[in-house]
Amino acid sequence: GSGRTRFLWEGRDRIHNLPGTYFQFACEGCGTIFVHPQPDAGDLARHYPEDYEAYVTADREKRLKRIYNRLGAQRKANYAARFCAGGEILDIGCGRGDFIDAMRERGYGVHGIEYSRHGAETCRKRELDVTQGDFEGIPLTDSTYDLVTMWHVLEHLRDPARAVKRVAASLKPGGCFIFCFPNITALNRSVFGRLWAGYDVPRHLFTFSEKAVERMLGAADLAMEDRRTFFGYFSAFNYDVKFWSEEVFGVGVVSRTIRAITGSVFCRLLTAPLMFLTEKFGRGSVVTYAARKPGRT
């Protein structure tokens, strides 16, 4: 960016209601929003408890949520297959392994990196090849993968620009990098403001603008092939409602009732057309990019 920043507001962990205050700033040059100062490793670790949504195993989920997550993994797999017809895949931040399991079923060679010990153990029980640890400290081999994916990971990393360069180096010539994160132009953000779930302080250290993404890809010599608000998760809206209701009514019966209503099957069906339209007009809650490394595919 330009180096000039503007203070926006104080934030806190609204998902787990943990103590701690974090400050969000905006880059005047590119529009990216970020947490400063970044929390230290110990502080950040406590905001990733074992019941963090990405780590919850399928057997602990309600049936509707389980079906929803399975469909989401298949949707990601369908999208990824458009850019990579086969070969070796690395999923960084693979969680419990739903996506790489879906790709394995399609005949791809799958590998994962997962920060959470609990998540990595779940993957190994599914006989998935997963390395447990912090991606930013795990070495990658150059020119190894046909596809690297980061589903809701880049915004969690302390140095995302370096991460993109490392991914680019690990790709084979012609390989593809697919990644997604909360959409800074989302309709939800316009409606809910600082209570927008996409900020997810302090886990999300960055909320990227399109200009920032273009710069990171350019610096890594990756060419953008696709950008769309393709994966608009309903759960993002449900968290928006949770944060708003708890801000207005406090943590209690009223806010829980409001969230139960908005999370119902009826409400999901009622709002589905709006979710569809926000995706089609680029205002969905999540933006997905596909970028390619130069060379033969």
Give structural attributes.
11 strands; globular; 297 residues; alpha/beta; seven-stranded mixed beta sheet; four-stranded antiparallel beta sheet; 38% helix
Question: What topology emerges from the helices and strands here?
Answer:
Layout: E1 5-13, E2 18-27, E3 33-35, H1 41-45, H2 63-83, E4 88-92, H3 98-105, E5 109-114, H4 117-125, E6 130-132, E7 145-151, H5 160-170, E8 171-182, H6 187-192, E9 206-207, H7 210-219, E10 223-228, H8 234-249, H9 253-262, H10 265-280, E11 286-292
Which shape, going by the Cα principal axes? globular
User: What structural class should be given to the helix and strand makeup?
Assistant: alpha/beta
Taking strands numbered 1, 2, ... along the chain, how are they ordered across the largest sheet? 6-5-4-7-8-11-10
Q: Hey, roughly how much beta strand do the residues contain? A: 15-25%
SSE arrangement, N to C: EEEHHEHEHEEHEHEHEHHHE
| Assembly state (oligomeric) | single chain
User: What is the end-to-end distance?
Assistant: 33 Å
Portion of residues within helices: 25-40%
Q: Based on DSSP secondary structure assignment, what is the total number of beta strands?
A: 11
Poorly predicted residue ranges: none
Rg over CA atoms:
19 Å
Short description:
The protein is built from ten helices and eleven strands. By secondary structure, it is an alpha/beta fold.
Task: Give a written overview of the molecule.
- The strands form 2 sheets. This protein has a 7-stranded mixed beta sheet, sandwiched between helices. A 4-stranded antiparallel beta sheet has the order 1-2-3-9, with no helix packed on it.
- The relative contact order is 0.14.
- It has helices spanning 41-45, 63-83, 98-105, 117-125, 160-170, 187-192, 210-219, 234-249, 253-262, 265-280, and strands at 5-13, 18-27, 33-35, 88-92, 109-114, 130-132, 145-151, 171-182, 206-207, 223-228, 286-292.
- Helix 4 links the parallel strand 5 and strand 6.
- With 297 residues, the chain is of the alpha/beta class.
- It is globular and about 55 Å long.
